[in-house]
Amino acid sequence: MHLPESLHDLADSETVRFLRRPKSISRVFGGVFSLVIFSSLLTDGYQNRTESSQLRCVLNSNYMACSFAVGAGFLSFLSCLVFLAVDAYERRLVGTRFKIAFQLLDFILADTPGLPSLPGPPR
């Protein structure tokens, strides 16, 4: 492992330049936020009443709502990790079809809040 002699050498490294890109920063923040939502729903989304030991969903006592929210949070966290990893190796990818498929999937998933059923960004 190579240790830099100064902080200036560290700031010029490829890893630091990658992590300072706006796309990388947004993916890291997206991963952190999805992890917070996933973990809070997993730990506090199910509670039991004092007279019963059975766990109930706090989202209108609907088990499917809690399951969907936990699953969506977990999938969004995994997608942030996968896209961050593929972004890190993007220059090393040889196949143009894989690059195009990756960029298309990234565009589709990034535009998901713009679906008619979900509120999107103001136009």
Automatic annotation (TrEMBL):
Any one Gene Ontology cellular component term annotated for this protein: synaptic vesicle membrane
Membrane topology: Multi-pass membrane protein
Record domain MARVEL: where: 18-123
Pfam families in UniProt: MARVEL
Transmembrane segments: 25-42, 62-89
InterPro entries, alphabetized: Marvel (IPR008253), Synaptogyrin (IPR016579)
Assigned keywords, A-Z: Membrane, Transmembrane, Transmembrane helix
Signal peptide segment: none
Compartments it resides in: Membrane
Tree of life domain: Eukaryota
Family (UniProt): Belongs to the synaptogyrin family.
PANTHER family registered for this protein in UniProt: SYNAPTOGYRIN, SYNAPTOGYRIN-4
Name of the protein in its database record: Synaptogyrin-4 isoform X2
Source organism per UniProt: Mus caroli (Ryukyu mouse)
